[in-house]
Amino acid sequence: MRALWMLVKFLLMLAIVIVGAIFAMENNQLVDVDFILLQSATMSLGLWLMIFLTVGCLLGLLASSVLITYYKRQLARALKKD
Question: Which of 11, 18, 46, 49 could bond 24 through an S-S bridge, CB–CB 3.0 to 4.6 Å?
């Protein structure tokens, strides 16, 4: 059962990578992004969107892991008091 679950995860990740690659190839207009203090290199729109999606997902995971850690500590303190 565990091997089947790992296979499903692998196939899902592979599908996401393939869809992302096709998305990046179809959006091949060259753009440069102006940040507040610096200007980026000129890259394709699809690549920029994939970069921003990845950074956004990582920031979301970081924020949620901070909350999960906080609640786990609260739970551990509550269980210790009992």
Answer: 46
